[in-house]
From TrEMBL:
Entry-linked PANTHER family: LYSOPHOSPHOLIPID ACYLTRANSFERASE 7, PORCUPINE
Compartment(s): Endoplasmic reticulum membrane
Metabolic or biological pathway: Lipid metabolism; phospholipid metabolism; Phospholipid metabolism
Region (Disordered) location: 378-399
Transmembrane segments: 268-283, 352-374
InterPro entries: LPLAT_7/PORCN-like, MBOAT_fam
Native organism taxonomy: Eukaryota, Metazoa, Chordata, Craniata, Vertebrata
GO MF: lysophospholipid acyltransferase activity
A Pfam match: MBOAT
Record's protein name: Leukocyte receptor cluster member 4
One BP term from GO: phosphatidylinositol biosynthetic process
């Protein structure tokens, strides 16, 4: 199984119905990116090319190709071919035009490994699928919509959101792993490890293509560009902020690049609220999306203030204990927010949250107030790719 054998003129071969965004009704609906997301990214890439060309003309000399820069403006047919490319249909992942072009113009596609990376990536999917079927059977979401559910004791109502979110995660893990495997099978998104590619954005370092088949065969590749889910990171990172990094990773890059950076505010929390608002709109008009997504900025503000007020003052052992408590609360916050995401309607979401006394909202407000009272600093977006805090020292991966 090798990579794609496409050449630079093979755009028309890769046509398929366009990338659609889904509304959330079907149990396998993934809320994937759609054609507009691709075209927003392409417009930005074209703008970057024009800016680079103007700078080159003003300076009077060429600096050589920049990382990720397009060679020229794509034609209408090339734009349509990119928008209708079968790779990533339905479930994603999001990919830039530069990634698509590099795939088409891969000089030695047969040398790009795909079978072994695919098997390494695919092996946990059957287990996740079985766990999804089991958890969704034992703890059906429909039970929350019945009046009898609210006659259960408070601990039972509190507990129920845990298996609901567990089933939700397992479902997405299977679908996104399958989507990544589709890309890997086509050799799509493969870059040399030396390029240090990141999910969605592609290479961060200039890495010239191999000049011969032998060099291509000896090059080590990865598929980080189309990596859409880090299952371990999602489950075992400590904070709400880090959990967002590992979920729908290519779309997270798109949101950070085109929504977060253009937000009409400087504050990290307000920029995050702006991003979550538009992300909710992108998913659809169901009130549950907005209730869930707009709870995230409150959690970000609370954990940021409280962490800067407390954690830095603790001993190493105290920080480890803090991280365990933080992780537990992070998971419960995502359990809580997931209920709005799956119940969708305003009445059903508020009914469930009210039945557990809006516990996460109240806890976040108390934590925020305590952090402010103790002089905790304002949370800010990391400017460097520092490793997120994890509960284990040796990070296990699915691959």
């Amino acid at each position: 199984m090798g990579g794609s054998s496409c050449g630079p003129r093979a755009h028309l071969v890769h046509l398929w119905p366009p990338h659609f965004a889904f509304s959330g009704h079907h149990p396998w609906d993934l809320g994937s990116h759609s054609g507009p997301a691709l075209l927003v990214s392409l417009a930005s890439e074209v703008q970057d090319l024009h800016v680079a060309q103007r700078k080159e003309m003003a300076s009077g000399f060429s600096k050589g190709p920049s990382v990720g820069l397009l060679p020229d403006v794509p034609s209408l047919m090339e734009t349509l071919s990119y928008s209708y490319c079968y790779v990533g249909i339905m479930t994603g992942p999001f990919f830039r035009y530069r990634t698509y072009l590099d795939w088409l113009e891969q000089p030695f596609p047969g040398a790009v490994p795909s079978l072994r990376p695919l098997l390494r990536r695919a092996w946990p999917a059957p287990l996740f699928g079985l766990l999804f079927l089991l958890s969704s059977h034992l703890f059906p979401l429909e039970a929350v919509r019945e009046d009898a559910f609210y006659a259960r004791p408070l601990p039972a109502r509190l507990f129920y959101m845990i298996p609901v979110f567990f089933a939700f995660r397992m479902r997405f893990y299977v679908a996104w792993i399958a989507a990544e495997c589709g890309c890997i099978a086509a050799g799509f998104g493969a870059y040399p490890v030396a390029a240090k590619a990141r999910a969605g954005g592609g290479p961060t370092l200039q890495c010239p293509p191999p000049s011969s088949r032998e060099k291509a065969a000896s090059t080590e590749y990865d598929y980080e560009t189309i990596r859409n889910i880090d299952c371990y990171g999602t489950d075992f990172c400590v904070s709400v902020r880090d959990g967002m990094r590992y979920w729908n990773m290519t779309v997270q890059w798109w949101l950070a690049q085109y929504i977060y950076k253009s937000a009409p505010a400087r504050s990290y929390v307000f920029r995050s609220a702006w991003t979550m608002l538009l992300s909710a709109y992108w998913h659809g008009l169901h009130p549950g999306y907005y209730l869930s997504f707009l709870t995230i900025p409150l959690c970000l503000a609370a954990e940021g203030r409280l962490e800067s007020a407390f954690r830095v003052r603790l001993s190493p052992r105290g920080q480890k204990a803090w991280d365990w408590v933080h992780w537990f609360l992070k998971m419960r916050a995502y359990d809580y927010m997931c209920m709005g995401f799956v119940l969708l309607s305003l009445g059903e979401t508020l009914r469930y949250w009210a039945s557990i006394y809006f516990c996460i909202h109240i806890l976040a407000l108390v934590a925020l107030g305590l952090g402010l009272a103790l002089g905790g600093g304002s949370p800010c977006r990391r400017k460097t790719a520092s490793p997120p805090t994890s509960l284990a020292s040796g990070k296990l991966r699915e691959e």
